[in-house]
Amino acid sequence: GVSFDLDEANIILEEHREVLQQIINNNELNNGYLTLARDIEVMEPKSPEDIYKAHLLEGRGAGGGTVDSARQNLAATFVNAFVNAGFGQDKLMTGSSESSSGGSSTSWLFKNKEHGKISAAASLGMILLWDVDSGLAQLDKYFHSPDTHVIAGALLGVGIVNCNVQHECDPAGALLVDYVDKEDSSIKIGAIMGLGLAYAGSRSDQVRLSLVPILADGRTPLDVIAFTALSLGLVFVGSCNEDIAQTIIFALMDRSEAELGDPLARFLTLGLGLLYLGKQ
């Protein structure tokens, strides 16, 4: 996922350089993916039930899988996102074109609770993977939600849609940076992880300038610190960036024994490890 810019030393002809830079930036990745999917006739959306094959399990009546539980719905959200990743359509989140004006995505979203809503909103980013323009347009409605979990999920979805694609307008940065300073922890984490995924491997200075101050602030809650370290590790993977490494180490030293015992604290060390990935 490490990105690079071509210059005259690499390619002399300007039109060649532009075309190759677009390929490196993965701008046509979504179109190529969908062309292949149409050619091999796998465009039809699959539902989680198609994957579970629940009807083959012994002792399951026809109505055996119909009970709604938050945990089952969360599992279905993930299965649905992975099986329909990049196809731009599914049966839970994008729904059918005939669905009513409210759309089926909203009703599926609210079959989940709290962090389940984060995952459901973010799963739309997975379904629309690499399709930056359409993905951002469909995620936009969630930014007007009164529910902070839904907004957090939409921010994470923006990061997923943009993952490994360098768009010339840089929409992920423009959208996410504004939410990094919000008071609500879940919204803050959604924006931070969104930046980590959207700019993974890019060594973006914009992301560094946005996230390092959060990491260096001793008053920041541990969960926010943990995901900030992880995001910086993703963006600066294999860079051996000394300043970020030092900031993560100081953040670890600032925390109490009790905080370091929290499972989330391991993301700080994971972020540190990612900075040196493959560098021995």
TrEMBL record:
Note the superkingdom of the native organism.
Answer: Eukaryota
Q: InterPro entries annotated for this entry? A: ARM-like, ARM-type_fold, Proteasome/cyclosome_rpt, RPN1_N
Q: Which UniProt keywords apply?
A: Proteasome, Repeat
* A single GO cellular-component term on record: proteasome regulatory particle, base subcomplex
Q: Could you tell me which residue ranges the RPN1 N-terminal domain spans?
A: 14-56
Repeat as a keyword?
Answer: yes
Q: Name one GO biological process term.
A: proteasome-mediated ubiquitin-dependent protein catabolic process
Question: What PANTHER family does its record include?
Answer: 26S PROTEASOME NON-ATPASE REGULATORY SUBUNIT, 26S PROTEASOME NON-ATPASE REGULATORY SUBUNIT 2
- Of which family is this protein a member? Belongs to the proteasome subunit S2 family.
Task: Report the protein name in the record.
Answer: RPN1 N-terminal domain-containing protein
Q: Which organism is this entry from? A: Genlisea aurea
Organism classification = Eukaryota, Viridiplantae, Streptophyta, Embryophyta, Tracheophyta
